[in-house]
């Protein structure tokens, strides 16, 4: 453990040079506009704990207090570590003071002594989560381009964005990985890319020479979004000591440059622990200590918990504040004593005095032109990109993800064509000289055409939202984009596939099976199958948006699809079905699709031979329609109903996406 006043040179793992970290400290930090003070007072966080004893009973939710009235204060120029054992509340406190946590919360969060709302905190801070959630099929350069386009001021020029991205990739040592997919990166590389995304805020945006500002001439500084606060959730987790030291060293350099960097860490190595300016120790949702590393040594030594020489101080403190399984009561008594002693200590008193009284946030923006107002106004004047730009770049990301996974899409398409070949070959020649035995066979082919189309496109999008909800929550919470352009980008992106593949699928079946009616019937078949494919996309997105788990969605969709196929007209004669159950056909996309292509096919058949004796003779196509309970005049009604079901499913799915986007992201 380093003694107070002793200067130990440390190797800077970024440059390889031996430096004395204390020589470049920023002395005399005061509360001025360029030096923020973030404080929290009597902060408590409540979470809902779910209890469900049976699947037949509604779940009961219990409100659990996970943070117990904690207070603290940190200032710019400091690298702060939030430490504690698992479940101590590190990530909860980090999410609370960064206003990323949407749980029930009481207490005060202040900037320079004034209340700070979630919008202001989000604008002036970056958040690096423990697990970097992103679309893993993008390369590093593509991911950075996407983030830069949506995060930076819309008035920044393309060359400025490109220069900033290249600069960050070079500084963080991932310039050689720009063409590597995110999912192929190592843990350390993913951490550095996540840091680079947050540093994208540090961009000196500039207006092009042809830009005109009508209201006022903007200073270049007003076009910056240089966040003075950076929150990092366990940036060293999963990294070896060298990589962890490199990441924390980079964070320390940022702090020394004037930023406030707050990290939750779990038992850092000795060399890494020494890089932090301050430490906040938590246990069971309470503050066990808040101060410098030297002060921590003094405090625990005063309680007869002196860290042994040569022992990792961070590991020692965390072990003191952890619960031992075989000594649970003793451990909890020790934790309670340490927390209580801290509350009575001079260190806690000093922190409480620095936190001070609470002032209203409106004092930031009271119309006067003092330094504080000018400083905070620069974050409020950031011009975010509009919905059209968000939609464009979300579409761009969708297209790139498919481009990098083209083999999967090609395999799915070949599977579709193979299924079309399998179901059409047995019916080849049956439509040329139809007799009574061919009627059921022909209707079976029409049924298979619709069911295969619908099922394929349902499950093509079935896993979309369950797999992307964590990314959606994280990116919407950070203000990257809104739910509307996100959902529209998905809907529009699915349409080309739901048009091209049904056309090729129908063309194959039409040619191999020898369906009747010529070009106009082929055109009608394509139109109906395209409607069914898009309805299936909407239905699949509805299922994936409404239900959190695919298993639950399957439990609901399987019986619904079973009823839908039962009332499609192939298994049950709809003309003779009981009116108490026959209404179920009207909620079945299978029924609308099968009836529509049956109308197209059987209307084109004028005569059917009666070769088999003793079997009722159906001589025309319209008679076949009546046999199955179909009506020729229902064609356009069916098409309209498919479109209505498509629209309703998308509307409900979009509402659920909005609802889900308001949830608390997983950090």
TrEMBL record:
It is a multi-pass membrane protein. InterPro entries: AAA+_ATPase (IPR003593), ABC2_TM (IPR013525), ABC_transporter-like_ATP-bd (IPR003439), ABC_transporter-like_CS (IPR017871), ABCG_dom (IPR043926), ABCG_transporters (IPR050352), P-loop_NTPase (IPR027417). SMART domains: AAA. Its main location: membrane. The keyword Kinase does not apply. It is found in: Membrane. The chain crosses the membrane at residues 408-425, 445-465, 498-516, 522-540, 552-574, 635-658. It comes from the Eukaryota. Residues 50-309 form the ABC transporter domain. Keywords: ATP-binding, Membrane, Nucleotide-binding, Transmembrane, Transmembrane helix, Transport. Belongs to the ABC transporter superfamily. ABCG family. Eye pigment precursor importer (TC 3.A.1.204) subfamily. This is ABC transporter domain-containing protein. It comes from Iphiclides podalirius.
């Amino acid at each position: 453990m380093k003694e107070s006043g002793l200067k130990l040179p440390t190797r800077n793992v970024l440059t390889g040079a031996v430096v004395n970290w204390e020589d470049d400290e920023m002395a005399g930090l005061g509360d001025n506009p360029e030096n923020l003070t973030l404080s929290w007072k009597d902060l408590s966080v409540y979470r809902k704990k779910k209890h469900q004893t049976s699947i037949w009973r509604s779940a009961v939710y219990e409100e659990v207090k996970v943070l117990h009235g904690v207070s603290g204060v940190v200032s710019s120029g400091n690298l702060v570590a939030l430490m504690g054992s698992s479940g101590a509340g590190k990530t909860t406190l980090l999410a609370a003071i960064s206003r990323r946590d949407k749980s029930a919360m009481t207490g005060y969060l202040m900037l320079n002594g004034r209340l700070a709302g979630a919008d202001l905190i989000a604008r002036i801070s970056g958040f690096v989560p423990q697990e970097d959630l992103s679309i893993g099929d993008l390369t590093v350069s593509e991911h950075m381009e996407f983030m830069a386009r949506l995060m930076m001021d819309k008035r920044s020029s393309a060359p400025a964005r490109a220069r900033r991205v290249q600069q960050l990739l070079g500084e963080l040592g991932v310039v050689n990985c720009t063409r590597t997919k995110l999912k192929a990166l190592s843990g350390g590389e993913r951490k550095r890319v996540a840091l680079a995304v947050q540093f994208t805020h540090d961009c000196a945006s500039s207006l092009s020479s042809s830009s005109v500002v009508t209201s006022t001439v903007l200073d270049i500084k007003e076009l910056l979004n240089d966040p003075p606060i950076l929150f990092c959730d366990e940036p060293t987790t999963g990294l070896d000591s060298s990589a962890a030291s490199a990441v924390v060293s980079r964070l320390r350099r940022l702090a020394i440059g004037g930023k406030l960097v707050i990290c939750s860490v779990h038992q850092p190595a000795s060399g890494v622990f020494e890089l932090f300016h301050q430490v906040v120790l938590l246990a069971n949702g309470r503050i066990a200590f808040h101060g410098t590393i030297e002060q921590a040594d003094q405090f625990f030594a005063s309680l007869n918990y002196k860290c042994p020489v040569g022992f990792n101080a961070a590991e020692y403190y965390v072990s003191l504040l952890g619960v031992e399984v075989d000594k649970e009561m003793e451990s909890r008594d020790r934790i309670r004593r340490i927390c209580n002693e801290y509350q009575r200590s001079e260190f806690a008193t000093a922190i409480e005095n620095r936190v001070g009284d609470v002032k209203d946030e409106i004092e930031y923006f009271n119309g006067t032109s003092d330094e504080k107002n000018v400083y905070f106004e620069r974050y409020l004047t950031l011009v975010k990109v509009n919905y059209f730009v968000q939609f464009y770049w979300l579409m761009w990301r969708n297209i790139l993800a498919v481009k990098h996974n083209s083999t999967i899409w090609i395999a799915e398409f070949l599977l579709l064509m193979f299924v079309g070949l399998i179901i059409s070959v047995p019916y080849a020649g049956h439509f040329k000289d139809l007799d009574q035995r061919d009627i059921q066979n022909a209707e079976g082919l029409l049924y298979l055409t619709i069911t295969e189309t619908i099922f394929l496109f349902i499950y093509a999008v079935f896993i979309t939202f369950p797999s992307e909800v964590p990314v959606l929550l994280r990116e919407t919470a950070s203000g990257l984009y809104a739910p509307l352009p996100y959902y529209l980008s998905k809907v529009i992106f699915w349409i080309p596939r739901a048009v091209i593949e049904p056309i090729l699928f129908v063309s194959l079946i039409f040619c191999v099976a020898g369906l009747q009616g010529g070009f106009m019937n082929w055109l009608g078949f394509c139109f109906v199958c395209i409607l069914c494919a898009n309805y299936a996309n909407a239905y699949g997105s509805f299922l994936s948006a409404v239900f959190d788990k695919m298993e639950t969605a399957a439990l609901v969709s399987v019986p619904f699809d079973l009823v839908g196929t039962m009332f499609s007209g192939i298994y049950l004669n709809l003309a003779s079905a009981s009116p108490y159950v026959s209404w179920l056909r009207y909620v079945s996309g299978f029924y609308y699709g099968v009836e529509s292509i049956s109308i197209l096919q059987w209307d084109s058949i004028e005569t059917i031979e009666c070769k088999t004796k003793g079997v009722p003779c159906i001589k025309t196509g319209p008679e076949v329609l009546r046999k199955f309970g179909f009506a020729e005049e229902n064609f356009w009604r069916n098409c309209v109903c498919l479109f209505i079901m498509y629209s309703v499913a998308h509307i409900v799915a979009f509402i659920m996406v909005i609802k889900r986007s308001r949830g608390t992201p997983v950090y």
